[in-house]
TrEMBL record:
Residues 34-348 form the Beta-lactamase-related domain. Keywords: Signal. Gene3D superfamilies: DD-peptidase/beta-lactamase superfamily. This is CubicO group peptidase, beta-lactamase class C family.
Length: 372
């Protein structure tokens, strides 16, 4: 009987704490609704991390303008470039397992394609650490988005810029070491994972990151079978024809997810950095992943994450922008808190920035909170 009473008390207390957390952040709702109205963002979804846990997640606005279909906490959005850190964790897992080398010439690790040598690579070969940190000298090749009706190229066709690919070839266009933000570099990493694991990229990501972290509402399968998703909106909030564009190769922008799932992902990295056991990466590889490689525009880029200081706090995270979708995620390097915000509108930047400032000032002591 004493055990039952103690157990009941434990669950009641745990429920009370969860309810208190939810109530605390629920007070943000009126202010967030005001921000959405002012910025004309169509739909917004948010998740907040506190003490290394997702304590609040909520959807606001509409999945599609002109409908009454409300965004919920489980509505999928395109994560855009927030896909890169997820890809980077999968790569680092294979590094930890000894299947991929950070420092060896990437061409020695690829089997189904080779990055063409030229005058730049004669001086220094491109390695995986450089690809992860955008310092491999890879072209910032423009990857145009596909429609849902298009036939997608193979990853090798995409890297070579061969039809049906609609992008330029991925090539080394500067000496490795210089920071050039490059989707092409992450496309090479996508193929490296496929060559290493002999599986499709969505399957690798599901097995390596999404399933272990119980990111049940996340997928690299752009068909979205049975999934509830938010349509993308362009200028003046016009709905994208056929609801959304397809991002390919998948590694740099093809993830569909929710803020709650991505918040779990960030908390996973925080716990690994803290030294807790039983996570995808150990502390050593997490520290390596979060060690800045380069400085640019006041921020530092590590292996898949941006590192930036806001007030007295050091954060890691990433922004994302695909046609019709804008998002941002950041988490503290210490203390176990953070936020993920996803929107389905080109008006999303203002909403994202205002919400980050609102939460930062009200809960993270990043300056005075001025509700108006």
């Amino acid at each position: 009987m004493k055990f039952i009473v103690t157990l009941t008390l434990f669950f009641t207390t745990a429920s009370l704490y969860a309810q208190t957390d939810a109530q605390k952040y629920e007070s943000l709702t009126p202010e967030i609704n005001k921000i959405i109205r002012k910025t004309k963002a169509v739909g917004v979804s948010i998740a907040i991390i506190e003490n290394y846990k997702v304590v609040w997640a909520k959807g606001f606005g509409l999945k599609e303008a002109g409908t009454q279909d409300s965004v919920t906490a489980t509505t999928l959005f395109q994560a855009a470039s927030m896909s890169k850190p997820v890809t980077a964790v999968a790569v680092m897992k294979k590094v930890q397992e000894g299947k991929i080398s950070l420092s060896e010439d990437v061409n020695k690790q690829l089997t189904s394609w080779q990055l063409p040598d030229n005058a730049y690579t004669k001086q220094s070969k491109v390695n995986v650490k450089e690809l992860l940190s955008h310092t491999g000298g890879i072209s910032g090749a423009v990857f145009r988005h596909y429609t849902r009706k298009d036939s997608l190229p193979t990853i090798v066709q995409a890297l070579n810029g061969q039809a049906p690919a609609i992008n330029e070839p991925v090539r080394v266009t500067w000496y490795p070491g210089k920071y050039v933000y490059s989707a092409g570099g992450y496309s090479i990493l996508e193929l490296l994972l496929m060559d290493t694991e002999k599986k499709t990229y969505p399957a690798i990501m599901e097995q390596t990151v999404l399933a272990p972290l119980q990111m049940e509402h996340s997928t690299f399968d752009y068909h979205l079978p049975g999934k509830e998703f938010a349509s993308g909106h362009l200028k003046k909030n016009a709905v994208i024809e056929d609801k959304y564009m397809v991002i390919y190769p998948f590694s740099f922008g093809g993830l569909w997810s929710t803020p709650a799932d991505l918040a779990r992902f960030l908390a996973e990295v925080q716990l690994s950095l803290k030294g807790e056991q039983g996570h995808i990466l150990d502390q050593e590889h997490t520290r390596l992943m979060l060690t800045p490689v380069t400085n640019t525009s006041g921020s530092q880029y590590a292996l898949g994450f941006t590192i930036a200081k806001r007030g007295p706090v050091n954060f890691f995270g990433h922004d994302g922008h695909n046609y019709g979708y804008i998002s941002s995620m950041l988490a503290s390097l210490e203390g176990g808190y953070g936020i993920v915000i996803m929107t389905n509108s080109e008006n999303g930047w203002k909403a994202v920035n205002k919400i980050k400032k609102l939460v930062g000032r009200k809960y993270w002591a990043l300056g005075p909170y001025h509700p108006h």
